[in-house]
């Protein structure tokens, strides 16, 4: 005796399977889109489980204070990478601005505003030089900023005659250590900078032009965008933000070390890449960079609490960078 399927039963497999495929595809897309958020939550959960010191308000404040100077250079690096370039000079800009601001503070004690102004101007000048080399002379960004990285490292020692600048007035330390609304000034600058640049990149024509230049420079020029001015502006802003970072770092230690900021450019690039920006340009967000930066700082803090050696921390960060780029390439291929 044979049984016959009813029309409803006969059509059930053909409707259930596509629904399952659609559901799994949707879940995969959501997991891929918010992968960094998921990883961040897992990292926080792991460190909180391993140490009671981690999940405390005091430790959160420590992470934010440590992240603030890196946030400024990472934000500038984001603008540069969105145009398809790279800025290797931010580490030496930090050193030069730290030495220049320390020398100013020592020569003019009590005039804190002058030290900050000098740091901003020095950073802006170096960034403008990078912008001219890249946008006007068409020097490849890697070569142009590598040159200013080397020259800036030497110039920092020239300012201090080969030695750190010490004996600074106590007022110099107020730049990084003064609290407003319960938060230190660098943390406030970080928060304001992230929100302001996020709005600019998403809601203004300038942000649209930066993305257009990074996506396709030739098409942007055809559309009437002055690509040279856009390129110049992102490198100038990167230098300016690095200058602010330099004076804050120097103020934190109340000194002018000529090697300050060494290697910071790599952490800034790592934060941008981990945050989902493409090194080819045209894709990335300020919020993604902020998340990538917090990921790195949280890892550093948690691994320090667990007394993990520094060399293993570098290994973990390197693996994280490669994984972030691999996910970016894979997701690009899926979209294509």
Automatic annotation (TrEMBL):
Its lineage opens with: Bacteria, Bacillati, Actinomycetota, Actinomycetes, Mycobacteriales
Q: Got a GO cellular component term for this one?
A: plasma membrane
What is the name of the protein in this document?
Answer: Ribose/xylose/arabinose/galactoside ABC-type transport systems, permeases
Q: Tell me, in one coarse class, where this protein mainly resides.
A: membrane
- Output the CDD domains linked to this UniProt entry: TM_PBP1_transp_AraH_like
| Pfam family name, one | BPD_transp_2
One GO term in the molecular function aspect is: transmembrane transporter activity
Ordered alphabetically, the record's keywords are: Cell membrane, Membrane, Transmembrane, Transmembrane helix
Q: Where in the cell is it found?
A: Cell membrane
- Which species is this record about? Mycolicibacterium cosmeticum
Membrane topology, as annotated, equals:
Multi-pass membrane protein
Its transmembrane ranges are 26-48, 60-82, 112-133, 139-159, 180-201, 234-254, 266-290
Transmembrane recorded as keyword: yes
